[in-house]
């Protein structure tokens, strides 16, 4: 007696492709308002926020106390951060650009950290405070790059000194390089809102 024939089961449909999660990148400026070259980060962001940026890129002015910057980092959870600021190191001529990858190891000096936190709560806005508190709070991703410009004119007023003004296009080019923008992939104008970066 022959066994009943069975039809082969139809192949299971391929699962729907998973939506690729878009990388979130934060390009942030830090500055001291109304102090010319020391206000570099703030004024830089105002100049470039309307440029063409890839989707998922946030261009923001974070000229606020360091603990508030940490709050924003925790909220956004960026995969990459590029920080831009005018920072007086007094080791280079005015207008010198320094780019470096941030070591995100939390600081070990508890007394210095406590002092920085207290000063930040008191309203101090400073790149080094932001870096220290951001590292302490584990807000920075592994891929964090800092671009500093050595200020020249630190007086009260608007606009940059001639040497620092000459750095603006160079810093913009460095940021575009960091973002791999030569490919021109999925570019839009302006920064992207949270919905566009999901």
Question: What Rg is obtained from the alpha carbons, in whole angstroms?
Answer: 23 Å
Task: Give the CATH architecture.
Answer: 3-Layer(aba) Sandwich
What portion of the residues fall into strands of 2 or more residues?
Answer: 15-25%
Which CATH C-level class is it? Answer: Alpha Beta
CATH superfamily: HybD-like
Work out the number of β strands: 7
Question: Oligomeric status of the shown chains?
Answer: single chain
The number of domains: 1
Helix/strand-derived class? alpha/beta
Describe this structure in words.
- This protein has 198 residues and is α/β, with parallel strands linked by helices.
- The chain has one domain (25-178): Rossmann fold (3-Layer(aba) Sandwich), CATH 3.40.50.
- 29% of the residues lie in helices and 18% in strands.
- It is built from six helices and seven strands.
- The protein has a five-stranded mixed β-sheet with strand order 3-1-4-6-5.
- It starts with 24 loop residues before the first strand and ends in a 9-residue tail after the last strand.
- The relative contact order is 0.23.
- Residues 183-198 have low confidence and may be disordered.
């Amino acid at each position: 007696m022959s066994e009943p024939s069975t039809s082969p089961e139809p192949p299971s449909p391929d699962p729907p492709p998973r939506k690729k999660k878009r990388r979130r990148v934060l390009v942030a400026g830090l500055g001291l308002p109304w102090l010319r070259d020391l206000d570099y980060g703030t004024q830089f962001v105002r100049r470039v926020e309307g440029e063409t940026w890839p989707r998922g890129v946030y261009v923001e002015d974070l000229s606020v106390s360091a603990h508030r910057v940490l709050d924003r980092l925790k909220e956004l959870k960026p995969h990459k951060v590029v920080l831009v600021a005018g920072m007086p190191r007094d080791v280079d001529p005015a207008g010198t650009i320094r780019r470096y990858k941030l070591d995100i190891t939390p600081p070990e000096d508890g007394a210095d950290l406590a002092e920085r936190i207290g000063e930040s709560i008191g309203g101090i806005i400073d790149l080094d405070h932001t870096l220290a508190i951001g590292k302490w709070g584990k807000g920075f991703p592994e891929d964090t790059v800092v671009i500093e410009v050595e200020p020249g004119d630190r007086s009260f007023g608007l606009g940059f000194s001639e040497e620092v003004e000459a750095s603006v296009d160079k810093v913009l080019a460095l940021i575009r390089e960091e973002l791999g923008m030569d490919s021109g992939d999925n570019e839009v104008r302006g920064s992207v809102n949270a919905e566009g970066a999901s």
